[in-house]
């Protein structure tokens, strides 16, 4: 007797792109962010710089589906490949349908166009924060050739903290370092903060990228955070750590503080883990 078994985990039941490691990684990380409550509705965006060889293993790089004109030319990124989240789409939905919610782009050789190689189905566009992503990639790559990821979300406690803490970068950074022992080790360069601005614009992109010359993470007051890194895990881990510190701050703020991590302890910690905290923060 022949029995037909239905196997729900069969590869054919997987959404398009599931076999491609970097697409899967994007789908999984956006799901994590959404589950953390950091990406309500269409909040948040991610861009991930890829090597041509890793893209060509899975996608025909000679088959351009369509081209998109970005808001500004990006000569510095000519020929580079990015997987990005789509504009107006919900992180909640990426896992089930990466092809509609993500896009694989190559910046044209003249830097004037974006060549869509995969995804952005049904005329979807790349993230509205593309100026900030591209300008931040340009600056981080100048500092670290291994840089790959720019990640934005509306991390709840970071956002809350921007209402009640001074927005001075050194003071904000020091408060975060004092909230959890790991903080100074994870982000010894601290956090950059820009003034409140209209999102999605080239101007906010320029301000953020300016900060990226010095910081891996930049806070947008009353909006959220940008984190960068050499991998998805690193950028996510950075935001997670800053958000955790902000959460502790929000829990202790307004309570009587009986003890805290001292400046001396911060210095000893940094020495023990071989990191150099940004000068001008400890001891001030
Ligand atoms: O809509 O988070 O900053 C996505 C955003 C804009
Ligand atoms: Zn946002």
Protein architecture, described:
The chain has 2 domains: 21-128, 3-Layer(aba) Sandwich (L-fuculose-1-phosphate Aldolase); 152-273, Class II aldolase/adducin N-terminal domain (L-fuculose-1-phosphate Aldolase). The chain has helices at 21-35, 52-56, 98-101, 130-143, 156-164, 169-179, 183-186, 202-212, 232-252, 263-273, and strands at residues 45-50, 66-68, 81-85, 102-107, 114-119, 149-153, 191-193, 217-220, 224-229. It has a 9-stranded mixed sheet with strand order 2-5-4-3-1-6-9-8-7, sandwiched between helices. It is α+β, with helices and mostly antiparallel strands. It has 10 helices and 9 strands. Zinc ion binds at residues 43, 152, 154, 199, 223-224. Dihydroxyacetone is lined by residues 42-45, 128-129, 152, 199.
Secondary structure elements and pairings:
Elements: H1 21-35, E1 45-50, H2 52-56, E2 66-68, E3 81-85, H3 98-101, E4 102-107, E5 114-119, H4 130-143, E6 149-153, H5 156-164, H6 169-179, H7 183-186, E7 191-193, H8 202-212, E8 217-220, E9 224-229, H9 232-252, H10 263-273
Parallel strand pairs: 7-8
Antiparallel strand pairs: 1-3, 1-6, 2-5, 3-4, 4-5, 6-9, 8-9
Bound molecules: Dihydroxyacetone and zinc ion (ZN).
């Amino acid at each position: 007797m022949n029995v037909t078994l239905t196997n729900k985990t069969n590869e054919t039941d997987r959404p398009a792109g599931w076999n491609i490691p970097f697409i899967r990684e994007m789908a999984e990380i956006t799901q994590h962010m959404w589950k953390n409550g950091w990406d309500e509705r269409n909040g948040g965006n991610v861009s991930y710089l890829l090597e041509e060889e890793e893209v060509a293993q899975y996608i025909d790089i000679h088959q351009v589906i369509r081209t998109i004109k970005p808001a500004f030319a990006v000569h510095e990124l000519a020929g580079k490949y990015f997987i990005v989240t789509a504009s107006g789409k919900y992180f909640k939905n990426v896992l089930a349908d990466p092809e509609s919610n993500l896009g694989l782009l190559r910046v044209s050789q003249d830097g004037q166009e974006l060549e869509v190689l995969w995804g952005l189905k049904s005329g979807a566009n790349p993230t509205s924060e593309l100026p900030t992503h591209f300008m931040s990639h340009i600056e981080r790559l100048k500092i670290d050739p291994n840089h790959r990821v720019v990640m934005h979300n509306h991390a709840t406690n970071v956002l809350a903290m921007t209402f009640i803490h001074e927005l001075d970068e050194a003071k904000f950074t020091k408060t975060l370092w004092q909230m959890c022992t790991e903080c100074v080790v994870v982000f010894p360069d601290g956090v950059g903060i820009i003034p409140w601005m209209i999102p999605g614009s080239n101007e906010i992109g320029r301000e953020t990228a300016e900060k990226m010359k010095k910081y891996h993470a930049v806070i947008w007051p009353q909006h959220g955070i940008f984190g960068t890194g050499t991998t998805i895990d690193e950028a996510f881990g950075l935001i997670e750590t800053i958000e955790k510190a902000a959460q502790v701050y929000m829990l202790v703020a307004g309570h009587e503080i009986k003890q805290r991590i001292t400046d001396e302890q911060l210095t000893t910690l940094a020495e023990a883990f071989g990191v150099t905290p940004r000068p001008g923060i400890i001891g001030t």
